[in-house]
Amino acid sequence: MIKVDHVNKNFDRFKALDDLNINVNKGSIYGLVGTNGAGKTTIIKHITGIIRPDSGQITIGGEDVFDNRNVKQKMGFIPDDLFFFSTYNLKEMSKFYKALYPNWNQQRYAHMVTQFDLDEGNKLSKFSKGMQKQAAFVLIMSSMPDYLILDEPIDGLDPIVRKLVWKYIVEDVAEREMTVLVSSHNLKELEGICDSIGIIAKGHMIMERDLDELKSDVHKIQVAYKKKPENPYKNLNVLHLETRGTVDLLIVKDKKELVEQTIWKNNPVLFDLLPLSLEEIFIYELGGADHEIQSIIF
Ligand SMILES: Nc1ncnc2c1ncn2[C@@H]1O[C@H](COP(=O)(O)OP(=O)(O)OP(=O)(O)O)[C@@H](O)[C@H]1O
Q: What are 99-133's pLDDT values in tens digits?
């Protein structure tokens, strides 16, 4: 388990992390999302033991992360801004990783180099940005980490490679209970693979939930009546309501059964209930942008 417990971090007078809590269960994939500047890279640098918090605690498998070699050997990290020794080629880099990680898997490395079609003899500095990301992924996944931390890993990768990357990740989670924390702006892709989601804003966790549970709790609804009853939604937790002609458009945060029961009671002539996508939940939870809700959700 990865646990971030009441972590605070200031850069001079700027509060980058504000009493932040994160809980990533063993053998699960956790998507960390937030607007630009929300603090994702900053907390990832804390989780990977690069930065020390001003206060609070970060543990991985129960051990404090900062300056802990034992934890770092079990962790694979692909940062947003990759760094490779510029004179090394992939083969030389793999030897470096092999010496660093006790669980290095040479067979997997050889297989992945072929699958990703990377030239082992070419200097990494000569690789394109996307190819450098692929090389980093091959090296990290061949290290067989128990914990995988990825900061915007798929940016700049083509769709075929992205699919391959997720395939390796999902397999390792299923087969050997690897624990994954991934930050990304690509909510559609996260939606397809994450078990849980944390949304942060201004360095603070605003919502951390199991993804299925989250999606089963918030719905968008279209409903119309022959004769609209008075106050038909009084039993429901309505987050947003607008009326277009005879159709009511709502966002409701309640169990599906309760919503259906309440609406059907009033004999609607039209009733559609749909789950919100992660993108829609993100926009709603980060609030304020009511006009965006109207244009995106309905
Ligand atoms: N070393 C630093 N010194 C001063 N401010 C910093 C430093 N590192 C980060 N910050 C500030 O902390 C805030 C959070 O930055 P961070 O890079 O963690 O955001 P992010 O969520 O990863 O953003 P993005 O999605 O744009 O990558 C920003 O306002 C940034 O300017």
A: 999 999 999 999 999 999 999 999 988 898 899 99
d(CA 244, ligand 1 centre) in Å: 41
For 150-184, write each residue's pLDDT tens digit. 998 887 889 999 999 999 999 999 999 999 999 98
CATH: 3.40.50.300, 3.40.50.1860, 2.60.40.420, 3.10.129.10. Which one for 2-202? 3.40.50.300
For the CA of 203, the closest atom of ligand 1 is 14
Helix (H/G/I), strand (E/B), else coil: 169: helix
**Does residue 295 have a pLDDT over 80?**
no
Atom number of ligand 1 nearest to Cα 11: 4
CB within 8 A of 235, min separation 6: which ones? 258, 262
Residue with tokens 């005879």: 246
Ligand 1 centroid – CA 42 distance (Å): 6
Residues at CB less than 6 angstroms from ligand 1: 11, 14, 16, 34, 36-42
Quote the CA–CA distance of 46 and 63 in Å, as a whole number. Answer: 14
Are residues 268 and 225 in contact, defined by beta-carbon separation less than 8 angstroms? yes
